[in-house]
Design goal:
With about 90 residues, this protein is mainly β. It contains no helices and 6 strands.
């Protein structure tokens, strides 16, 4: 799922996400819990102000952001890489 993401500006173009949009909802990043790199992409595991944890991927070549994973504090399982969000946020 593609996302619109706003990042803090620093010496790098997309240093870290500060907020993102899921449908009409604006979610503010509270902490960036983890960050790691892949070929031409950067991943961020963030907790948002709704209490949920998201993994966001930034493709540095295309400047596209995508939602990779979602986890609610109420969910007992692990991250689901095949998460399909409800129609209300697509």
């Amino acid at each position: 799922m593609k996302l619109q993401v706003e990042c803090c500006s620093g010496h790098k173009a997309a240093e870290r996400p500060v907020k993102f949009w899921l449908g009409d909802s604006v979610l503010f990043v509270e902490p960036v819990e983890d960050q790691w790199y892949g070929p031409a992409v950067v991943y961020f595991r963030v907790r948002s102000d709704d209490g949920n944890t998201y993994v966001l991927r930034h493709n540095e070549q295309t400047n596209e952001w995508t939602l990779v994973s979602f986890r609610s504090p109420a969910s007992p399982g692990q991250f689901d890489p095949h998460f399909d969000p409800p129609d209300s946020i697509q």
